[in-house]
Design brief:
The protein is about 80% helix and about 0% strand. The longest helix is centred in the C-terminal third of the chain and has 27 residues. It is mostly helical.
Amino acid sequence: LYGRMDVPQRLLVVTVTLIGVFAAAGSYTGEHYIPNLGMYFASYVLSFYLFSVVFFKLLPTRRARWIIRAAMALFAVFVIFRLRYILTPGNFDSYTPALLSVAMMIYSVLFFNEQLNLPQITFIYKTPWFWVVTGLLLYYAGSFLILLTTDYLMVRDNTFIRGLWDLLDVLTVIRNLLIALGFVWYKNTSWKTSL
């Protein structure tokens, strides 16, 4: 099925798969008390760049591509300045995933803006990318404050932050269900017959 997908969908599958691998590794290392904060940082950085490439391929306008390129460059500068803090043991970097969430919300709004300006799309909810981007928007909008406050709350109220991360898990399930729904709406007949 992977061979029948277009480039943005292939990149989306790779991105979601890598996020899943990082989540599984984070869960395993957390259960066995292995320090994993650096791995979470790497996951957020990788997610940002992979999703940026997905949206870069998905959004054909010059303005959208300029915004994505600028965001990628600014994020690289931000990560370089945050590396010293990240490399200190026991520090969870809340700003990197929060910035990832803001960028994903901006990318999603760009996508919806461009989709609504296309005259050939009458029912946007029947397009596969509508469901994918809606799932991403819901997840990153919901996770923004959770991830932003994790560093602060981690040392002050560990039980509360665990509850918030349980909410983050619920948001992850919703995101994945909406992404799966996007594949159901995929228009290619060869894709539908192969299902």
